[in-house]
């Protein structure tokens, strides 16, 4: 197979280690008879254009080498809404959370993960679609409005991958304890049946994986899957000063049903709009996308992805 490895040479706290990891992955694939090209990103959002260019050049597999943010950027160049996607997305976990890689049950050893996928199967999956400020972005892991959107926005000017997991958690705790989260409206229709519903929320999270990793692992559903055509929508009701800590506590205990402020439902789409002039932040796959209003929907058969044999 013809493979392309797309990676950010400046990512992580040890750039030299990242280069060594890419060489190790390339050597492992070459030893198995695959053709490999290593492509480093050239700036913010360049990975999408580079992935699209590789796909147009008839590359078989395009590996996103990095964390969920790198996967998110590569994804933008590979999703197809109107025809069968050509190239296949592979995931090499080199980040901190690696939520998608963990969901796919990939090894956290980069070379092993690459071989696992090439020896596995190909699956065509739906992706989430966010429309905000006239722009369209796709996601595989999750989209969130409110607390997690504010957290990601606060890190826009920082080097997230250089914070370290403990520093990241400390920053999140400080933000959640001191920031005022304004309510907004969410409108949705349950996927199975029912009429459209409008609720007031201080936080919304639409998930597609069974764990977000680390301290946030309990905030999603264990039944969530990237293969599902519906989103697992979690709606947090006001007041934020009470509902937010209860959300984390019930998530850590794996007892979301005891939280009276949390409502979970499966939806095909939803929209959010601001109230009284306050426009909360939103993010997808750990990337800040802007502020409300926004709409989220699902795009069927939009992405080919490699899955390991489990």
Short summary:
The chain is an alpha+beta fold.
Compute the number of structural domains.
Answer: 2
Percentage of residues in helical conformation:
25-40%
The rounded Rg comes to 19 Å
**Which strand-content bin applies to the residues?**
25-35%
* Poorly predicted regions: none
- Measure the end-to-end span: 22 Å
**Order of helix and strand elements from N to C terminus:** EHEHEHEHHEEEHHHEEEEHEEEE
**Structural class of the helix and strand makeup?**
alpha+beta
CATH class type of the largest domain: Mainly Beta
Q: Kindly report the average pLDDT value.
A: 91
Q: Major β-sheet, in short?
A: 15 strands, mixed
CATH level 3 topology of the largest domain: Tumour Suppressor Smad4
In oligomeric terms, what are we looking at?
single chain
Q: Given the structure, what is the number of helices?
A: 9
Number of strands: 15
- Please name the CATH architecture of the largest domain: Sandwich
Walk me through what this model shows.
The relative contact order is 0.17. The protein folds into 2 domains: 2-119, 3-Layer(aba) Sandwich (Rossmann fold); 132-299, Tumour Suppressor Smad4 (Sandwich), CATH 2.60.200. By secondary structure, the protein is of the alpha+beta class. Helix 1 packs parallel to helix 5 (110-118) and helix 2 (46-56) packs across helix 3. The mean pLDDT is 91. The two termini are 22 Å apart. It has a 15-stranded mixed beta sheet that branches. Helix content is 29%, strand content 34%.
């Amino acid at each position: 197979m013809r493979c392309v490895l797309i990676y950010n040479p400046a990512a992580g706290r040890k750039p030299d280690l990242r280069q060594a990891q890419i060489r190790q992955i390339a050597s492992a694939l070459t030893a198995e008879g695959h053709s490999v090209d290593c492509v480093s990103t050239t700036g913010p959002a360049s990975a999408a254009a580079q992935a699209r260019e590789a796909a147009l050049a008839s590359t078989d597999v395009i590996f996103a080498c990095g964390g969920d943010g790198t996967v998110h950027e590569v994804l933008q160049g590979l999703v197809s809404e109107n025809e069968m996607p050509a190239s296949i997305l592979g995931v090499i976990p080199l980040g901190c959370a690696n939520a998608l890689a963990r969901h796919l049950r990939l090894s956290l050893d980069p070379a092993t993960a690459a071989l696992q996928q090439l020896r596995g199967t190909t699956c065509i999956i739906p992706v989430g679609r966010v429309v905000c400020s006239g722009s369209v972005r796709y996601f595989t892991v999750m989209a969130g409005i409110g607390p997690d959107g504010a957290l990601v926005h606060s890190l826009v000017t920082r080097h997230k991958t250089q914070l370290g997991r403990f520093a990241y958690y400390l920053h999140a705790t400080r933000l959640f304890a001191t920031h005022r989260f304004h309510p907004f409206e969410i409108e949705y229709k349950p996927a199975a049946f029912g009429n459209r519903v409008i609720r007031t929320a201080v936080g919304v999270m639409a998930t597609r994986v069974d764990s977000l990793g680390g301290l946030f692992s309990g905030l999603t559903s264990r039944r969530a899957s990237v293969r599902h055509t519906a989103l697992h929508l979690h709606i947090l009701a006001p007041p934020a000063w009470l509902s937010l800590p209860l959300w984390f506590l019930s998530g850590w205990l794996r007892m979301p049903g005891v939280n009276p402020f949390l409502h979970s439902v499966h939806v095909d789409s939803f929209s959010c709009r601001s109230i009284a002039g306050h426009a909360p932040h939103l993010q997808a796959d750990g990337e800040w996308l802007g502020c409300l209003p926004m709409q989220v929907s699902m795009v069927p058969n939009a992405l080919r992805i490699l899955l390991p044999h489990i």
